[in-house]
UniProtKB/TrEMBL annotation:
GO terms for molecular function: transferase activity. GO terms for cellular component: sulfurtransferase complex. NCBIfam families: sulf_tusB_dsrH (TIGR03011). Keywords: Transferase. One of its GO terms (biological process) is tRNA wobble position uridine thiolation. The gene is dsrH. This is Sulfurtransferase complex subunit TusB. Coiled coil: none annotated. The keyword Transport does not apply. The keyword Transport does not apply.
Length: 97
């Protein structure tokens, strides 16, 4: 399953609420303000990475916020083509706001 987050952990409790349903075989895509989660120490996103969940960030949203050099964890930075590829590869998707 692909879990798409759109809001930062400061704007929403979606990261905490999703913890009960995200499993090791799932993928997470951070877009819009959610990319901030990968730049903050002690972000809830770290627990997903520790559990082996694949984490992706949309490069354009990272660049729009000037955060390219501020990542605190290793993630896969993808472009819009990669975004489309993820949605094709993951039949089931969930958007968290």
């Amino acid at each position: 399953m692909l879990h798409i987050f759109t809001r930062s952990p400061f704007q929403s409790r979606a990261f905490d609420e999703s913890a009960a349903v995200i499993s090791q075989n799932d993928s997470i895509l951070l877009i819009q303000d959610a990319v901030i989660a990968a730049t903050v120490e002690n972000s809830p996103i770290f627990s997903f990475q520790d559990a082996g969940v694949k984490i992706y960030l949309l490069a354009e949203d990272l660049a729009a916020r000037g955060l390219q050099d501020k990542l605190k964890l290793e993630v896969n930075v993808i472009d819009y083509k990669g975004f489309v590829g993820l949605t094709v590869d993951c039949e089931t998707q969930m958007k968290w706001a």
